[in-house]
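User: tokens in, sequence out, please.
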């Protein structure tokens, strides 16, 4: 927490109590509204930052130069040293090429990164008897899909599997200038800040992984790239937004992968953050 707090400007450091911060998973910052710490319970703090204070904070997060992080800001996020992730919301306007570009922030969401132990049930499902199985992780938003993928990647890497991570938005390895800020294992290679489909194809060709990891499948081109990787003999470890196997089948890209039997195991999270509620085979049957 000390290292995280050092990245905040003085008004925010003074307003954030370390005891509450240690229990939080998010810091919600909105212009003119109380700071909100989200965790097992929500804690509202009396400090109400102005737009100017939010601008100064974002500038500090960018190392004093917004233009240096313009590409990430245009996509609505920043990754801080330590792997903490900042969602950015505010005013966008077309740039000279007509693309949406960030102009100013009205709200920030600081998601606090923590390493957590891997759910052993998940590890047994993904690699029973040490043999890798292609695995899909499903849950509603906020239940720890990304964290579980990261911990599975780290656990498999520590077992000696060659792991490749296609980290389009920096949520799995949280790279800063290409260096992972979160421990994804000693045998893991990360391609960050590149769209999933080209990253998956590049990693499959260039790094010869045993297992390829990526988060939040959604687009048809993602599914096509993962299907190609699987046909090349690479195991895949992915996640998608869905609360059940049946719901996942109704999503175009995920449903295509399930119907093509890309996955040997499907883990459904629920009940608590990171908890495996059900382990299914590739056709949705309990196993």
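Assistant: Sequence out:
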């Amino acid at each position: 927490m000390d290292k995280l707090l050092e990245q905040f400007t003085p008004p925010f450091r003074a307003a954030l109590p370390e005891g509450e911060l240690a229990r939080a998973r998010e810091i919600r910052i909105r212009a003119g509204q109380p700071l909100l710490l989200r965790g097992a319970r929500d804690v509202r703090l009396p400090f109400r930052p102005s737009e100017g204070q939010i601008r100064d904070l974002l500038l500090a997060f960018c190392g004093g130069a917004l233009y240096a992080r313009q590409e990430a800001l245009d996509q609505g996020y920043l990754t801080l040293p330590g792997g903490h992730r900042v969602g950015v919301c505010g005013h966008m306007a077309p740039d000279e090429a007509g693309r949406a570009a960030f102009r100013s922030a009205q709200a920030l969401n600081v998601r606090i990164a923590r390493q957590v132990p891997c759910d052993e049930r998940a590890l047994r499902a993904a690699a029973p008897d040490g043999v890798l199985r292609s695995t899909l992780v499903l849950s509603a938003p906020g239940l720890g899909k990304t964290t579980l993928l990261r911990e599975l990647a780290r656990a498999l890497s520590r077992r000696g599997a060659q792991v490749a991570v296609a980290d389009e938005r920096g949520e799995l390895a949280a790279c800063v200038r290409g260096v992972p800020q979160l421990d994804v294992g000693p045998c893991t290679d990360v391609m960050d800040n590149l769209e999933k489909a080209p990253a998956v194809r590049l990693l499959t060709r260039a790094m010869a992984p045993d297992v390829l990891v990526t988060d939040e499948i959604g687009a048809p081109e993602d599914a096509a790239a993962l299907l190609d990787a699987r046909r090349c003999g690479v195991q895949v470890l992915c996640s998608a937004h869905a609360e059940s196997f049946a719901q996942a089948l109704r999503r175009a890209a995920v449903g295509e992968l399930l119907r093509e039997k890309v996955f040997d195991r499907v883990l459904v999270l629920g009940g608590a953050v990171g908890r495996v509620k059900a382990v299914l085979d590739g056709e949705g049957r309990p196993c």
